């Protein structure tokens, strides 16, 4: 019988093919129609029990959902680009989530692995010094690009599914593979949590590759994620002639400008770092018209859930005050959110020991100080922990051609086998789990 290492190494050509196919047909959040059909078909072929679409996504908990017309247009495009028609109805309307379950038939805990599938809203660099373009797999979809390695994550999920099924006789308990839509903008995980997909999970692991971690290093318990809230804000006033009748107008642009300045002057918090950013401000129709419309995209972040909640509450007060000051109406729409979460020490310790024993890495660390970002897998981590389970977030270092969310982003594909071997080892050796003192 082949060893785990041999099985994964033999799988590499398929891993590379999957990854480059997903990269070529990049799909943004809630629009992963083609990706989801191909993933579901492969998991079904392998013999997994599948829950799809509305079975694993709570419709009311989705955030930042595109307009219906966009969903319909992108679904039609996915079909034209090779989405599998027999699976597409499960994901129609943007319900592009998948949970694959392997019941081993032997008693044991439930272990879950989460990977994300969505691309960014970004145009990829089309130049010969960019490998995906040079080798013919740069994104063919304008304004959509896998610039955060989610194509690699989805591939790791499929590779893990393949080797676990091949080694089913050595496994015990239940294995769940969660393929999540709409991680970018922290929009998708909460809806899967609210659908109950991790309520039965005893051990949970989410993953990422890159993020500034050096090639050859694995971080077993990243805890640098900030809680965040993403808001879209609309101000509506009254238009009037800016020269003849300015007093009849209600200036939405000034309300939004006042709010922008006030938001960036919110007080800091003694409990830790906090962030506020107005990333988009659009307003007005002409130089001689009092603007009756303004639109803002805002985010808050905090080192803890409490800090972010505090800053977000302050932001809401600023928006209300600015609207009242200029006599305009305002509407706030929640577009995304994530929590902060600390990995469970015992599970991090176990991951560390398994990674060291593989001899695949030059460095195995529990955590690494990093630039503060946010990640909505924290919703899943927190739910698992609340129900008595163990959870962590693992980062596999790799060489990058450019930073994440950059038009020239690419990664060393050799990181994918190392990640699969590590995750498979967690499932194979779970019966040996002993919580660290």
Q: Biggest sheet: strands, sense, closure?
A: 8 strands, mixed
H and E order: HHEHHEEHHEHEEEHEEHEHEHEH
Name the beta content range: 15-25%
**Molecular shape:** globular
End-to-end separation: 36 Å
> Going across the major beta sheet, what is the strand order?
1-2-4-3-5-12-6-11
Helix content: 25-40%
| Mean pLDDT rating | 96
* Annotation field: number of helices: 12
Uncertain ranges: none
What structural class do you assign from the helix and strand content?
alpha/beta
Radius of gyration: 23 Å
Number of distinct beta strands:
12
Could you characterize what this model shows?
This protein is of the alpha/beta class and 437 residues long. The protein is 34% helix and 19% strand. It is built from twelve helices and twelve strands. The strands form two sheets. The protein has an eight-stranded mixed sheet. α8 (252-263) runs antiparallel to α9. The longest helix has 21 residues, at 4-24. The radius of gyration is 23 Å and the shape is globular. It starts with a helix and ends in a 9-residue tail after the last helix.
């Amino acid at each position: 019988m082949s060893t785990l290492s041999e099985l994964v190494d033999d799988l590499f050509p398929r891993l590379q093919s999957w990854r480059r196919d997903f990269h070529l047909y990049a799909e943004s959040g809630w629009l992963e129609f083609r990706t989801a059909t191909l993933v579901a078909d492969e998991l079904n072929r392998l013999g997994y029990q599948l829950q799809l679409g509305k079975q694993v996504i709570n419709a009311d908990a989705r955030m930042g959902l595109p307009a219906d017309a966009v969903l319909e247009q992108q679904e039609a495009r996915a079909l034209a680009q090779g989405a599998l028609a027999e699976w597409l109805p499960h994901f129609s309307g943007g319900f592009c989530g998948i949970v694959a379950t392997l019941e081993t038939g032997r008693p044991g805990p439930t272990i879950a692995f989460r990977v994300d599938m969505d691309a960014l809203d970004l145009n990829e660099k089309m130049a010969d010094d960019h490998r995906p373009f040079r080798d013919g797999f740069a994104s063919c979809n304008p304004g959509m690009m896998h610039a955060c390695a989610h194509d690699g994550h989805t591939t790791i999920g499929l590779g893990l599914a393949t080797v676990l099924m091949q080694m089913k006789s050595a496994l015990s308990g239940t294995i769940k593979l969660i393929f999540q839509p709409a991680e970018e903008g922290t929009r998708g995980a909460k809806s899967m949590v609210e659908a109950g997909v991790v309520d039965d999970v005893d051990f949970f692991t989410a993953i990422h590759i890159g993020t500034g971690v050096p090639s050859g290093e694995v971080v077993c318990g990243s805890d640098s994620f900030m809680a965040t809230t993403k808001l879209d804000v609309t101000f509506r006033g009254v238009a009037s002639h800016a020269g003849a009748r300015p007093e009849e107008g209600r200036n939405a642009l000034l309300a939004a400008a006042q709010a922008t300045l006030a938001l960036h002057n919110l007080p800091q918090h003694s409990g830790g770092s906090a962030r506020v950013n107005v990333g988009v401000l659009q307003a007005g129709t002409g130089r001689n018209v009092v603007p009756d419309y303004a639109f803002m995209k805002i985010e808050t972040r905090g080192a803890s859930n409490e800090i972010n909640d505090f800053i977000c509450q302050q932001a809401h007060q600023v928006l209300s005050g600015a609207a009242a000051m200029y006599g305009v109406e305002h509407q706030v729409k929640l577009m995304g959110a994530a929590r902060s979460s600390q990995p469970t020490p015992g599970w991090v310790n176990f991951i560390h020991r398994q990674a060291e024993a593989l001899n695949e890495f030059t460095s195995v660390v529990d955590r690494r100080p990093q630039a503060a970002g946010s990640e909505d897998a924290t919703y899943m981590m927190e739910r698992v922990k609340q129900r008595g389970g163990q959870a962590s977030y693992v980062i596999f270092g790799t060489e990058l051609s450019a930073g994440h969310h950059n038009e020239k982003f690419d990664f060393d594909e050799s990181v994918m086998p190392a990640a699969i071997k590590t995750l498979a080892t967690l499932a194979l050796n779970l019966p040996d789990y002993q919580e660290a003192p």
